[in-house]
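Check the record.
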Amino acid sequence: MTCSVRIPDRNETISDVFILVGFSYLNKLQILLFLVLLVIYLATLLGNLLVILLIKITPSLHTPMYFFLVNLSFLEICFTTSMVPQLLIHLLVEEKTISIAGCAAQMYVFTIMGLTECCLLAAMAYDRYVAICHPLHYTTIMRGLVCAQLVCASWFIGISVEVAQTTWIFSLPFCGSNRIHHFFCDIPPMLKMACADTSKNEIMVFTVSVVFILGPFLLILLSYICIFSTILKLPSAEGRQKAFSTCSSHLTVVTVFYGTALITYLLPKSSSSLESDQMISLMNTIVSPVLNPIIYTLRNKEVKGAFRRAVEKSIFAHS
């Protein structure tokens, strides 16, 4: 179905496509942004796929922490892919359209991946808590079945909650202008386009944010309070450094993920700063996924060692 750029009347229902205004204001600079985002997206894919491959081919990395890391890398790939390819195409074309079905599909994927990642980061924090605070019982507590249950629970919460929320949002009628002043179908701009009472939807969004986003964050915070308390009680500086190094990568990932998310969704928004709001959202979309594999390779001796051995093995094989 073809799209008209005509702005409908306020009471006219939108039944075909939306126009993602995105970064149209950049004009010719969109090409530069395209090149930058393409490089970052490819780095995200390669970095996270490399982490997954390294863990798969290295028996010494077949532990609970790296089992969670494989799932995290997969989530980051799906989260980024739900938005960036569409954005790359729109940076090169004049008509930046997306069908209502495509918009819904995009929201399903990125909300599910985002909420699942919140829960998974909490599960990873629990893993680090058990490893440092209860090391003698670690293998008993964090056995394979428990790890699988934690991952499945994270996916179940993400899928069930966000499928319900997104389905409810797209059951609303949309009317007025079909122009979305964003580069993807995020929840706040979609609710603004609804020509029905969205108060219950807004309550649900707030409830989901408090229970399933802030909730895991508080669990992570509690885990690290216990972890730091245990580390500070260790008698030697070497022991404290070794214990902290086992959780520093995860702590950095949590800081980046929640830091960018809080800046994106909790900072006061201004109608006169749509461009800056979009740039902040873009940072949230690309920063965490591309940094996670870097953090887990540069700050983790086991992963760096596995990468070095894999490279050496490949070189010797070709020699």
User: Anything to note?
Assistant: Residues 55 and 187 are 35 Å apart (CA to CA). Confidence is low (pLDDT under 50) at residues 1-8. The two ends are 56 Å apart (CA to CA). The beta strands are 17-20, 97-99, 179-180.
